[in-house]
Every structure is written in structure tokens, then in C-alpha cells.
User: Which sequence fits this backbone?
């Protein structure tokens, strides 16, 4: 009924009370046995003790049967006995303490109401006693003053503790209960499996979140409805009913069963599921709960495993023909290097035919502009002849494979199934085709046919196998072609678009990108005409590849051009380049470079070699030799290296060859061997820089391409004959090189500096006229023809443009210059063009200034 | 401008000095002339075209000089051309009688002192 009743049962309280009475009586009797005050009425006290012992005996013996109110009465009786005892004893210090014990006893063993009633009764009884025994002694007053607050404090603290305990106990219990419920709910809701509980009638009473997800019914819709209507298909309903009946009728307290079944979602779709059902009986109520697990994922995995096993079996089967296929794979690998589609497709076709033992095979490629198939290779040998024309997707056998992107096997094909009518003549009995797909895109269709037998699914499997590899090969080749094209374009844009016209000098250059590299290399070269007739040649190699290297090449090239045109000697120019690399470019960058200045008139070269391959000097069929010396560290290695120049004689007819290490480096052999080979090859080369370059490349570079980029530059100081004829472009830029040639020629003819300067100036005027006659955009070259007639220089400048009469001013000045500088000047205009004939006799002294 | 021509222009106390080196022909002369002309402000007292480092000149270079002379005389500014005596450049300037348009002197100091 209340907390105390639950803590101590009635029997314990009754016995405690009995001990209390007995102890009280014993105490009283003991005090009487000692000498004591006369006013104590011994007879009455002995009677009270006897009464107390009697009550104690009754309480003890009747402890099992005593009722609650009898206990209360006994408690009150005890207080009365105490009060009378107090009265008969007279005021002593003992009694208020004994009252306190009684009160504590009440608070300990009884509920608050009873305890307070007891305290009140004690108070009343004691009050009455005090009135009767008036006046109270000083001792009693002292006891009251000290004892009452003590007892009250004890009572209150006891009271507070109990109130707190009871409140705490209740809250803890409630919280524990709530927590437990919430936990259960949470556990159920977060369970991956659906949890459903229903009563004996099949009405849903619990429905967790997973159930909502699984079946599509929210909990508030599901709870209160019959489970069989919610999640069971019509087929499953009878089985569900039977199971429910079995569960309910079973006499076992707890029953668990697991069933595999198909269940229905709200949208009507079904899925395989596993239910674990348990039945709990609570009194007369039956609660059935079920955990439901969607097993479709598990079944799918199972199916995948089975498919995998089948595939493995098929693969084992495929390995039976792996030997043949491997040959094809090797060929595909070869295509990953540097072949074009045109090269590889016929090869692929042949392999496919061999592997399948088919009489005909063809590869169609998707034409991306028209979305049609075109024959790229055919075993009938008609590729390129456009036998079939373009095949639309969905049209004919190949078009159908392209449209569906599925392999297909067709027996006894009708003639219209052939894209290529000539295949009809072969009497093919079976056709198989598979799509060629790379990175998710259809690139074409591969098709094969047999006339001698019916092809089977096994052949189709092999064809698919082949199709994968063919598609891969095509994809790689296309990618390679594209990337290599980009790289080469970029590389070439960094090289001179065309070499400058250098009359009297022969110049040729070659650049070969590495065979297997798609990235731009750092090889570069340039040819720069320097004012005064000299020519700067540079060959360099920037470490690294790609855009960083390319941009550095660009900067080095433009910087060197600037330094060269300013007329700096090689050491100064290379020093400035080194400063550029050292200060401005990235730390890790390094470049080798050789810069050569050729003075054709003097017949000499000066050079600085910053860590590059030594140039090769070739003269006729004599053993060529390397221009050693003038060597220093590569650019970008030291801030202020010492660049020393070296020089050598380059006679007329000699050729200087510059190159990058790609030409001479061979895997596994020393660089000296490559250099020795180069010298040997050059020795047997035909004359002329172009021929020399071609010869070098042919002899030094393997057919499959060099492992590294190769750049090659050859410049020949050609022999100037006593008579020469050259054609020059009608461009202002040609004038400087023409002057360079003339100076060399005239020096060869032993002209003085002044004679050379004057004749060159006069020729320049004639050539300027020729260029102006050609007009804007004129591209017909003009002709320069020189000969020595004894000591007389005869130069003819012929153009093929429209004659323009010299205007007053500039052009007229040109003519008067020519006249002043030459012995004779003849201008012959004609419809085809204009011829200017200049003559002057060299005499080593004075020019013909007064003959104008 | 042609790659064979280098042009250095500086201002010396109101006198513009244009140093032309390399070879002056039809490929570079017109552009060089334009560049020099645009470097002479109306406030300048005069222009010295210094051909000390010039290796070659032809009628186009001469035409450039005549053009500059015309332009400067219109603005009442003085022109001096420096060409070392006996060199190919002074030889050409002699032939075309450039002296009629502006004085040709042998070195830069002379030219500057004449303009001061």
C-alpha cells in the first residue's frame, strides 16, 4: 500500500514492537531493583511492567495474524504505559529520551501518517503529565530545553531523508522504465531488418522504420490493419494463415520459426524475404513478432556468383584457343607503339580470320561525321574501294550489330545482310558480328563469316574476345595519332618555320620526334643571319619534356636571336643566355647548347659549347673531325661560368654539322661508339647539306624510330666559283644575304674593301629595283648572275616583274648610285621583266667613281 | 623593322641622338626613319643621326635621311649626320650629295658641338 509496508512486513513490525515492550518493562523493573526515590510508586510500576510484558507476548505470538490497526493500537498503548510510568516515577531525565525512542521507532517502522500521529500522541500525553505534575522541576525544564530540539532535529532529518529517498527511487524507476522503452524502440527502429508485431487476430501493433522502408507503408497506416492484407501476395495468404494458426495453437510459451517467402510492397512489387517469427504468450494475449529481411540483394549476389562461375568456365574454355589469340594480342601490343590505323587493320583482320577459321572477315568503323559504318578493312581485299558504301545503323547485318551494340550470330544469311555484295559469292553459311567499343563509345563493328560450316556461340564468344582487343588497339592508335600530332605541331612551332636564304651557304635541318614519345622534347635549333654576312648557328637541348621545356626553348631561342643580331661574339651571347636560365627560369631547369658563328668570308667558325655534343666538321672525303674545345658547363648550372671560345678554319666546301644526343646515344653502348659511328657515316655521305642530313638520319636512326628526339643542322660553306647564278626571293630580307654572297665572291676575286663595298652597294640598288618591280606579294624570284672576266666583274640582275620608270627622288637616286659606283650600267626593260647589267674592273687602287 | 638594324635613341640636352648600326636597306630603312622621326619632339633643338657603327647604306637609307631632313627643316630643327670619313657610308652620302640637305660630319662630338 505504501513504501514502508513494502519495506517491512507486518510480522517484523509486530515482533519489533514486542521486543520494544519487553525491553521497556525489563528496564523499568531493573531500576526498581536499585535503591531509589521514595516518591516512586513501585507497585504501580510493577503493574505497568507486567502489562507491557503481556502485550509483548501477545504481539510476538500473534505476529503472523496481527492487523495494521492492532499494531497502531499497540504503539499508542506503549505510549500510554510510558506516560503512566513517568507519572508514577516522577520527573526524571530518562523519560523524554524514551519518548524520543518511541517516536524514532514509529518513524522507522511505520508510514509518515502513523508516525506523526504517534508523535502527536506522545506530545499530548506528556503535556497532560506536565500539567498534573505541576510545577515541573528545573531538571525537567532543562531536559525539555535540550531534549526537544534534539528530538525534533532527529525527526526532521529522518523525515527529509525518507522523502528524498522515496522521490529519488520513484524518479529512477520511472526513468529506467522510460529508457528501456525508448531503447527498445530505437533498437527496433534502427534495425536493418523490418520488425513487425501483431496480435492473435493478425492486427499490426508494432511497425518499425525499416518496415516502412521495406514495404512502403508508414507506421501510422500499418498499425491497426491486418498484416495479411498489407504484405502478403494472394498466393502467400493461405500459407500465412496456416502459420498463424499453428503459432497461436501451440502450447509452448515461446515459439520461433523461420520462413522464406515472397512479400509484397505497397506499390504491388514483390521481393524475396526471410522472416523470423516468434510468438509470445502474455496471459491470454498472444503477441507474434517477426523480423523480415529483404534477401533480393543476397539472391542477386548468389546469382552473380553463379554467373561468375559460369564465366570462369567459359574463360577456361577460351584459354583453349589462347595460343592463337596471344598472337593477336602481341600484334595489338605492337600497335600501341607508332602505327597508323591503316597499317594495323589488315593485320588484325588476318588474325581474326586465323583465330576463327573463318573465310571472310571485315572491320567497319563508325564515320563520326555521318554516323554510318564504313569498311575499314576486309579480307576480300576491297578496303578503300568503297564496295559497300556507307552502311546506316540498323541496316544489314553489320548495321544491326552497330545499332544494338550486341554480338549476333546469323545462319544462312539473306543476300541483303551483306554490306559487301562480293561476300555473297563466297556462299557464307554463317555470319557473326560484334561491336567494337572503347571507353563506352562505339568505334565500329567486327564481322566474320564461314562458308564451310555453321559457326556457333563458341565462335561468337571468340569474336567478342577479339573485338575487345581490336577496339582497344584502334582506340590506342587513334589516341596516339592525335597526341603525337599535337606534340609534333607544338615542337615544330618552336623550330624555324623555314631556314633563312643564305646565298653562298648551304643549310639544311631535320627534326625527328622520338618514336614512342607523345610529349614534346626539348631539342631545338636556329639559324640567324648576322649583320655583315656572318651566320649564327645554334643547337640546344633543354632538359625535360612537355610545356615547361617547350616554353624554355621559346625563351632561349628569342633571347639568342636578339644577342646574335646585336653582333655579340659567342661567349658573350652564351653568357647572357646563362644569366637568363640562372636567374629567371625554374631552379631545376638546365639546358645544353652550342652556339657557332660562321664567317663565310673569312672561312672560319667561332663557337662556345655549353655541355652539348661537339660539332662535326666535314670536308670532302677526308676523315671528319669533331670541333672539340670551347667547352663549358651547361646553362643554368653555375651563375658565372667561364665560357671560353674556340675557333677553327672552315674552308669553302666544308660543312659544319650540329646535332643533339638523340642521334648518337644508343641504349647499352658508350657515347663514344655513337660518335665514332657518326663520323664514319658522315664520311660516306654525299655532298650537299640536305643530302648529308638525309643520309645521316637513314644510317643512324633505326627504322622504328629513335628512342629520343633527334635534331640535326648542317651548314656548308659552299665553294664560290668564278661564275655563279642564283635565284633570290623578291623579298627585302633577301638583300642582306645577297650582299654576304657578293662580299665573299669579291673577296675571293681579290677586290679591295672599298671595291667590295661599292660593287655590293650598286648590286643592292639593282636588286632593290627587282624587288620593287615584283610589287606587293610578288613571289617570282629574281636572278643574280655574276662572272669574272679577267679583272672585270660582270653582274647581271634580272627580274620578271613589271617595269616601273624611276620616279624623281628615291628610285632615281638608286640609278645614279649605280652609275656612280660602277663602270657601266645597262638597264634593259622588256615585257618579261627588267635586266640590269653592271660592270666594273677591279684594279686594287681606286674605284670607278669618276666614270659615273 | 629588319633584324639587321639596331637603333639606339637618346636625348642629350635637347638634342636627340639616334645611333644606327647594322645594315640599312629597304628591309629596315622606312621603319627606322619612322622611329627616329617619332622620337624627336618639337621641343628638341636638333637631331644627330649617328652612322658610326653602320656598315652599309643604300638609296633607301638615303631616302630615309632626306625624309628626316625635310621634316626637321619644316620645324626649324637642325640635322647633323655622322659618318666616318672614307667609309662606305660617307661615300654613298657624297655621291647623292646629301650635304645639300644637311651637314655630314666625321664624329659625334663635332656634330653635337655644331648644334650647341
Assistant:
Amino acid at each position: 500500500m505504501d513504501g514502508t509496508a513494502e519495506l517491512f512486513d507486518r510480522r517484523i513490525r509486530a515482533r519489533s514492537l514486542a521486543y520494544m515492550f519487553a525491553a521497556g518493562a525489563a528496564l523499568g523493573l531493573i531500576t526498581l531493583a536499585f535503591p531509589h526515590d521514595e516518591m516512586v510508586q513501585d507497585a504501580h510500576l510493577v503493574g505497568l511492567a507486567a502489562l507491557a510484558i503481556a502485550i509483548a507476548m501477545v504481539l510476538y505470538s500473534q505476529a503472523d495474524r496481527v492487523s495494521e490497526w492492532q499494531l497502531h493500537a499497540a504503539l499508542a498503548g506503549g505510549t500510554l504505559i510510558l506516560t503512566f510510568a513517568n507519572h508514577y516515577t516522577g520527573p526524571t531525565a530518562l523519560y523524554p529520551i524514551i519518548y524520543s525512542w518511541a517516536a524514532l521507532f514509529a518513524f522507522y517502522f511505520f508510514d509518515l501518517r502513523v508516525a506523526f500521529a504517534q508523535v502527536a500522541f506522545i506530545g499530548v500525553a506528556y503535556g497532560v503529565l506536565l500539567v498534573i505534575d505541576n510545577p515541573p522541576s528545573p531538571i525537567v525544564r532543562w531536559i525539555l530545553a535540550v531534549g526537544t530540539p534534539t528530538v525534533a532535529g532527529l525527526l526532521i532529518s529522518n523525515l527529509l531523508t525518507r522523502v528524498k529517498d522515496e522521490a529519488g527511487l520513484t524518479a529512477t524507476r520511472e526513468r529506467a522504465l522510460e529508457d528501456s522503452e525508448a531503447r527498445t524502440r530505437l533498437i527496433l527502429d534502427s534495425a536493418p531488418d523490418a520488425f513487425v508485431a501483431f496480435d492473435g487476430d493478425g492486427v499490426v501493433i508494432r511497425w518499425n522504420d525499416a518496415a516502412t522502408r521495406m514495404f512502403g507503408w508508414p507506421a501510422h497506416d500499418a498499425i491497426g490493419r491486418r498484416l495479411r492484407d498489407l504484405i502478403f501476395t494472394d498466393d502467400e495468404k493461405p500459407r500465412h494463415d496456416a502459420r498463424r494458426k499453428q503459432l497461436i495453437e501451440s502450447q509452448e510459451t515461446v515459439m520461433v520459426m523461420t520462413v522464406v517467402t515472397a512479400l509484397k510492397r505497397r506499390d504491388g512489387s514483390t521481393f524475396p524475404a526471410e522472416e523470423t517469427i516468434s510468438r509470445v504468450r502474455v496471459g491470454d494475449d498472444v503477441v507474434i513478432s517477426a523480423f523480415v529481411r529483404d534477401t533480393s540483394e543476397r539472391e542477386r549476389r548468389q546469382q552473380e556468383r553463379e554467373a561468375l562461375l559460369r564465366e570462369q568456365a567459359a574463360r577456361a574454355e577460351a584459354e583453349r584457343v589462347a595460343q592463337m589469340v596471344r598472337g593477336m594480342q602481341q600484334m595489338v601490343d605492337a600497335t600501341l607503339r607508332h602505327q597508323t590505323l591503316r597499317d594495323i587493320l589488315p593485320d588484325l583482320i588476318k588474325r581474326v580470320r586465323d583465330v576463327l577459321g573463318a573465310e571472310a572477315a571485315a572491320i567497319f568503323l563508325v564515320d563520326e561525321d555521318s554516323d554510318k559504318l564504313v569498311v575499314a578493312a576486309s579480307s576480300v581485299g576491297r578496303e578503300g574501294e568503297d564496295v559497300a558504301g556507307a552502311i546506316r545503323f540498323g541496316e544489314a547485318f553489320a548495321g544491326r550489330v552497330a545499332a544494338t551494340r550486341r554480338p549476333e550470330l546469323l545462319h544462312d544469311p539473306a543476300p541483303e545482310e551483306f554490306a559487301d555484295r562480293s561476300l555473297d559469292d563466297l556462299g557464307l553459311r554463317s555470319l557473326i558480328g560484334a561491336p567494337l567499343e572503347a571507353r563506352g563509345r562505339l568505334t565500329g563493328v567486327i564481322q566474320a563469316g564461314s562458308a564451310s560450316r555453321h559457326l556457333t556461340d563458341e565462335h561468337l564468344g571468340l569474336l567478342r574476345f577479339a573485338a575487345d582487343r581490336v577496339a582497344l588497339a584502334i582506340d590506342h592508335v587513334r589516341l596516339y595519332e592525335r597526341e603525337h600530332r599535337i606534340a609534333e605541331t607544338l615542337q615544330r612551332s618552336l623550330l624555324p618555320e623555314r631556314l633563312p636564304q643564305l646565298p653562298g651557304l648551304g643549310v639544311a635541318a631535320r627534326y625527328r620526334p622520338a618514336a614512342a614519345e607523345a610529349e614534346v622534347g626539348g631539342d631545338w635549333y636556329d639559324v640567324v643571319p648576322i649583320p655583315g654576312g656572318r651566320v649564327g648557328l645554334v643547337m640546344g637541348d633543354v632538359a625535360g619534356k612537355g610545356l615547361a621545356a617547350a616554353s624554355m626553348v621559346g625563351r632561349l631561342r628569342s633571347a639568342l636571336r636578339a644577342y646574335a643580331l646585336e653582333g655579340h661574339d659567342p661567349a658573350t651571347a652564351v653568357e647572357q643566355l646563362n644569366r637568363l636560365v640562372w636567374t629567371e627560369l625554374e631552379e631545376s631547369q638546365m639546358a645544353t647548347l652550342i652556339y657557332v658563328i660562321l664567317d663565310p668570308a673569312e672561312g672560319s667558325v667561332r663557337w662556345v659549347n655549353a655541355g652539348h655534343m661537339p660539332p662535326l666538321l666535314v670536308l670532302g672525303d677526308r676523315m671528319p673531325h669533331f670541333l672539340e674545345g670551347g667547352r663549358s658547363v651547361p646553362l643554368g648550372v653555375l651563375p658565372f661560368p667561364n665560357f671560353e671560345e674556340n675557333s677553327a678554319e672552315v674552308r669553302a666546301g666544308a660543312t659544319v654539322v650540329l646535332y643533339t644526343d638523340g642521334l648518337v646515344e644508343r641504349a647499352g653502348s658508350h657515347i663514344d661508339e655513337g660518335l665514332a659511328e657518326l663520323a664514319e657515316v658522315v664520311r660516306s655521305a654525299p655532298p650537299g647539306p640536305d643530302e648529308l642530313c638525309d643520309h645521316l638520319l637513314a644510317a643512324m636512326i633505326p627504322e622504328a624510330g629513335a628512342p629520343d628526339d633527334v635534331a640535326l643542322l648542317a651548314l656548308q660553306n659552299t665553294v664560290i666559283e668564278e661564275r655563279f647564278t642564283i635565284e633570290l626571293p623578291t623579298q627585302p630580307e633577301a638583300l642582306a644575304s645577297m650582299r654576304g654572297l657578293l662580299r665573299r665572291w669579291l673577296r675571293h676575286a681579290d677586290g679591295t674593301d672599298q671595291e667590295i663595298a661599292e660593287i655590293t652597294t650598286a648590286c643592292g640598288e639593282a636588286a632593290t629595283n627587282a624587288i620593287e618591280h615584283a610589287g606587293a606579294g610578288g613571289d617570282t624570284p629574281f636572278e643574280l648572275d655574276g662572272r669574272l672576266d679577267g679583272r672585270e666583274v660582270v653582274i647581271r640582275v634580272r627580274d620578271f616583274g613589271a617595269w616601273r620608270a624611276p620616279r624623281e627622288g628615291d628610285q632615281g637616286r638608286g640609278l645614279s648610285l649605280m652609275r656612280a659606283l660602277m663602270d657601266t650600267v645597262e638597264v634593259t626593260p622588256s615585257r618579261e621583266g627588267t635586266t640590269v647589267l653592271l660592270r666594273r674592273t677591279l684594279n686594287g687602287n681606286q674605284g670607278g667613281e669618276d666614270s659615273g | 623593322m629588319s633584324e639587321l638594324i639596331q637603333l639606339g635613341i637618346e636625348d642629350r640636352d635637347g638634342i636627340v641622338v639616334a645611333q644606327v648600326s647594322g645594315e640599312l636597306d629597304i628591309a629596315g630603312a622606312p621603319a627606322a626613319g619612322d622611329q627616329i622621326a617619332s622620337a624627336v619632339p618639337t621641343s628638341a633643338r636638333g637631331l644627330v643621326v649617328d652612322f658610326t657603327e653602320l656598315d652599309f647604306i643604300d638609296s633607301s637609307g638615303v631616302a630615309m635621311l632626306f625624309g628626316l631632313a625635310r621634316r626637321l627643316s619644316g620645324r626649324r630643327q637642325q640635322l647633323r649626320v655622322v659618318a666616318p670619313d672614307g667609309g662606305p657610308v660617307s661615300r654613298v652620302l657624297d655621291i647623292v650629295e646629301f650635304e645639300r640637305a644637311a651637314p655630314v660630319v666625321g664624329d659625334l662630338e663635332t656634330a653635337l658641338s655644331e648644334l650647341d
